[in-house]
Amino acid sequence: LGGGTPTFFPPDELRRLGALVREHFRISPYAEFSVEVDPRRLTEQHVTALREIGANRASLGVQDTNPRVQLAIHRIQPQRMNQDAFDWLRSIGFASINVDLIYGLPFQTAESFARTIDDVLSLEPDRLSVFSYAHVPWIKPAQKIFEQQGELPDAETKLAMFAVAHAKLTETGFVDIGLDHFARPDDSLAVALRAGTLHRNFQGYSTQAGASLYSFGISSISSTPTTYRQNHKTLDAWRAALDAGQLPVERGLRLSEEDVRRRTSIMRIMCDRRVDFAAM
User: Which of 7, 58, 65, 220 could lock 119 by a disulfide, CB 3.0 to 4.6 Å apart?
Assistant: First the structure.
């Protein structure tokens, strides 16, 4: 559950959602059931409800723990909130917790981001995703203010931030999974990396090689071995398609054999960091 933040729902709505999912799908008792969590909108009652509907993995959006950066991006999130979220999730039995960080945000420096890494390591996460900030003001006009005020770090500073994060995390024992993911050595991602079975989709690295993705929400993207499909991006269009008894799909692509070959090559570069020309 996520891409978007389901913990904006009250606990009883999460329970209703869980009941609807189980009404329409058979869920394995061994399923990995992950949920995206916003610590700013999380209570212990949310965590209880999520566990009741079967969630056993969580991903927390943290981005940065520096108050100045948080103010600039309009995301006030004291470290106490992050700690409470971890405490609640661990105490009720969540097996794996990921933290999302972003570098390249307004007012960040290599030194300030190093302190963010230290703050996050104190929470003892199982995985970290360290993403580069995507500055796309033509899609998100509110980002234009960062340009006008000259607050964004330059490319050299961003590179220094990632170098600091990489050094601190690997020195602490985390495995560099690739690109932007880090995991503890006993995590399934690290195990898959060593076994050569690592996979990546547009949501990130995964151990589920070849699994199809079926997405249901607004703007979400599904993929199968031969297709990609994206749902409508507005509520009205999405709802209208459902009311008409149609899949709420706005656009799609059927892959050619050449597309599949290219996807496979790109996948192996991203997961193995090499190309097997003989296999190609």
Answer: 65
The reported pTM is: 0.91
pLDDT digits (tens, 9 = 90+) for 212-227: 999 999 999 999 999 9
Spatial neighbors of 257 by CB under 8 A, at least 6 apart, are none
Ranges under pLDDT 70 in the chain: 149
Of 183, 130, 137, 138, the closest CA to residue 158 belongs to 130
Residues 89-101 pLDDT 10s:
999 999 999 999 9
Distance CA 177, CA 185 (A): 10
Q: Using an 8 Å Cβ cutoff, are 184 and 169 in contact?
A: no
180: left (phi over 0), alpha (psi -120 to 50) or beta: alpha
Radius of gyration of the chain (CA): 20
